[in-house]
Specification:
The chain has 159 residues and is of the alpha+beta class. The chain has one domain: SMI1/KNR4-like (3-Layer(aba) Sandwich), CATH 3.40.1580. It has six helices and seven strands, in the order H-E-H-H-E-E-H-E-E-E-E-H-H. A seven-stranded antiparallel beta sheet has the order 1-2-3-4-5-6-7. Pfam families: SMI1_KNR4. It comes from Corallococcus coralloides. This is Knr4/Smi1-like domain-containing protein.
Length: 159
């Protein structure tokens, strides 16, 4: 993570870091703990923009106080029919499209990141990366493109 954080700070738009107290308050409010990679990121930068500054970056990594249940952010309601309670927004991709974290599927002490395309959420949430660190690495290498769409993990066409 150190190299990824250094690159993020050199070439992108980090926010000031979150404090340990802010992280503890976030975890208490949400009912889940950040994994080690996410915790390292937020202790260095409480969100920020990749490739462009806030408020309209290509990838907008949300500050802790803006992370919410994906079903609320995308569908506007906190009901099981609107998506799993374990899905939380992490990266704003604009136009109510998000990269989300699934806190119910922690593997190797890391949460997977999924594509939450507003047209198909919650029915289709393809895996983007097995961890935040993997996601950040691929995003930083993407030159601002949505890397999972150009790598063959395509969203279905909506007609």
């Amino acid at each position: 993570m150190d190299n990824l954080l250094a690159e993020f700070f050199r070439h992108h738009y980090p926010n000031p870091p979150a404090s340990s107290q802010q992280i503890a308050a976030f975890e208490a409010r949400m009912g889940w703990r950040l994994d080690a990679e996410m915790r390292a990121f937020y202790l260095h930068s409480n969100g920020g923009g990749l490739f462009a500054p806030m408020p309209n970056p290509k990838y907008g990594i949300l500050p802790l106080d803006e992370i919410q249940r994906a079903r609320v952010a995308i569908r506007g309601r906190d009901q099981e029919s609107a998506g799993p309670a374990s899905h939380f927004t992490l990266v704003d991709m604009q136009d109510t499209d998000f990269v989300i974290v699934d806190v119910a599927r922690r593997e190797n002490d890391r949460y997977p990141l999924l594509d939450a395309f507003h047209e198909t959420y919650p029915d289709e949430t393809p895996l983007i990366a097995s961890s935040f660190g993997t996601f950040l690495e691929k995003a930083l290498q993407s030159r601002g493109r949505t890397f999972w769409l150009s790598s063959g993990l395509l969203r279905p066409r909506i007609s």
